[in-house]
Automatic annotation (TrEMBL):
Protein source organism: Gallibacterium genomosp. 2
Organism lineage: Bacteria, Pseudomonadati, Pseudomonadota, Gammaproteobacteria, Pasteurellales
Pfam families linked: Phage_cap_P2 (PF05125)
Name of this protein: Capsid protein
InterPro entries to which the protein is assigned, alphabetical: Phage_P2_GpN
Length: 337
């Protein structure tokens, strides 16, 4: 590291901001974040992704407990002749459970030196780099996470935590479609497909959510890049579009309404995935007193080891407001039966 003076100045600013001991910070010791600062850090990470900042990030006291929002049994408005009309929160869908989560990254000396060249922008550039990686990982776990391993090793991060898809499988398995006409396969597009296009698929998924939710205007159709790309390809072929017309259309221009819902391709979403829900139905919970940070210059690794530790978990607030396809079972035209 050529810019050690800037590094130590950076650490002094961090210590001052978080109210921690600068000497301990320079030694690489971790420090706990007070709740307001922990929440502010979480919000800063959330801002690194348009999708992530559209869902809920909540700080809770306990490692496990009831969902903060949960679901109601039915509509909450009516009347009762001899009393008050009341709906009850349905806590039968299960509790939330947080797990130890450790995000660690090595910021190479060369990268830090480059950030330091920008003077007052050093802290902002450093934060953007680290926080963007954390945000993308949170989304990856949200869609691919299946279990909580003592020692994680899965390349797709499926063993870091149980994400939204896995929670849906467990809490309301009938809302996760595994089969089309053939057991274990869902064929989309082409002759003999279970769904001829994405509009058909979206409408089918929408019909699977609880009846009281079907007329909501905040429902969204989350869809993978492979499915959007294939639909664009088929439209181009069917209409004989020129290369210029294809470029004007593009995959993103297909993201209008599917089954009457807005289409979104979230970051790190399964390429063949599809989900119908609302953004407000998806949550990440963090235990407020669990958050720790550390920054350590590591000579052997030739970089700064940056660590963000917390107890974290995923929540589908209302399992009846979430339907999906099992993305690993999707087959596209031309693939082996």
């Amino acid at each position: 590291m050529r810019r050690k003076a800037e590094f130590y100045s950076f650490l002094r600013n961090v210590a001052n901001y978080y109210g921690t001991d600068v000497d301990a910070l320079i030694r690489g010791e971790s420090f706990a974040l007070e709740v307001p600062k922990a929440a502010e850090l979480g919000e800063n990470i959330q801002q690194r992704s348009e999708f992530l900042k559209s869902i809920n990030l909540d700080y809770v006291t306990d490692l496990s407990g009831y969902k903060l929002r949960g679901a109601t049994e039915k509509s909450i408005t009516g009347r009762k002749k001899d009393g008050r009309y009341l709906a009850r929160l349905d806590h039968t869908q299960g509790k939330y459970q947080l797990a130890e989560t450790d995000s660690g990254i090595i910021v190479p000396w060369a990268m830090f030196d480059n950030f330091a060249r920008f003077g007052d922008r050093l802290a902002a550039l450093y934060a953007e780099f680290v926080q963007t990686q954390i945000a993308l990982d949170q989304l990856k776990v949200g869609w691919y996470g299946k279990s909580v391993a003592e020692n994680t090793s899965a390349a797709d991060m499926s063993d870091v935590n149980k994400g939204w898809m896995q929670l849906a499988r467990e809490e309301k398995p009938e809302n996760v479609m595994e089969d089309g006409a053939t057991v274990g396969k869902i064929k989309i597009f082409g002759e003999g497909a279970d769904f001829e296009n994405l509009d058909h698929l979206a409408a089918e998924l929408k019909s699977g959510i609880d009846l009281r939710h079907r007329d909501r205007n905040d429902l969204v159709f989350l869809v993978g890049a492979d499915l959007i790309g294939k639909e664009a390809e088929l439209i181009n072929k069917a209409h004989g579009l020129t290369p210029t017309e294809k470029a004007v259309l593009g995959s993103q221009n297909l993201l209008g309404a599917f089954g009457g819902m807005r289409g979104i391709v979230p970051p790190n979403f399964p390429a063949r995935g599809a989900v119908v829900t609302t953004l407000s139905n998806l949550s990440i919970y963090v235990q407020d007193a669990s958050v720790r940070r550390s920054y350590r210059n590591d000579e052997d690794r030739k970089g700064i080891v940056d660590s963000y530790y917390r107890n974290e978990g995923y929540v589908v607030e209302d399992a009846g407001l979430f339907t999906a396809i099992e993305f690993e079972n999707v087959k596209l035209p031309g693939e082996d039966d």
